[in-house]
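Notebook entry, structure prediction.
Reason for the run: the old model in the group folder had no record of what sequence produced it. Starting over properly, with the input documented here first.
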Amino acid sequence: MNKLPLFSKTSQGANILVWMCTFVFLLLAGAVQAQEEEAAPEKDTRPVRNTFESVWLIDNQTVMVPIKGTFEMDIQHRFGTMDNGYDDFWGFYAPSNIRLGFSYVPVEKLQVGFGFTKERKMWDFSAKYALFQQGREGGWPVSVTYFVNAGIDTRNKKNFPDNTYEGSDRLSYFHQLMVARKISKAFSLQASVNVAHFNFQELVPSDADPETLLQMENDNLSLSFLGRLKVSPTLSVIANYDLPLTDNEVNNPNPNLSFGIEAVSSSHAFQIFVGQNYNIVPQLNNTFNWKTNPDKGFLIGFNITRLWNF
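New structure, fully documented this time:
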């Protein structure tokens, strides 16, 4: 009697068919998984749009740098303080301060410019570079921008004590490192650390004896905080706070609180606000606020920016 083989040809064929089906199934499963992984969207690390609507927010620069080829004109105006009430119509007819500025973006992330301010007949020359930009999804969680300027006081010598403000004594500088985050589509915050440097130590009267002149520090540190809340696609509520840190021997600068509204279009930004800084050039605001606004009075100001792209 012949014994049956352990595996018949029929059973061997069935086994081979089962293994082939299993192999094909694994290949199909792997292909489907690979397709699902490829279909999964990658994180969008492109920079967020419009953390702020302008390079300025009241008295401070923002982290924003316009796109390459943008030419910008700024008109910044500060009326007098409201302390005299109706006598000068709450500062509108008091002596005002005005700055005209122009800037250009020659390469991506870099803006250079200059301006002229009525106060101290100050010419300023500036550069601003976006070091890091917040990503839309992933990437950098914040935007970081560095701003620097050099100012030249061009007033006549008769405005200064004898033997002062010669040559480099007229120069001053301002450094600002800004960190900002667009928290939502409507809300953005920014903080910065600032250093104002003057080659000449300003001589100011002593509180005890006005005829005694004391020297201020060459360097003055400060912090700045900005916020913007959009209430419509073209309208925002804005606020700014500047906190001086350097302890001078005499006449420390006052803090500044400002708040207002901003209206924008694709090529314009208009800000009107109430604040305590009369100067416009930042090193003057952060060092001499006690001098131009000794009573810490509030004043009305506005900024207008106009952009052209080439």
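Summary: Residues 178 and 192 are 4 Å apart (CA to CA).
The old model has been moved to the deprecated folder.
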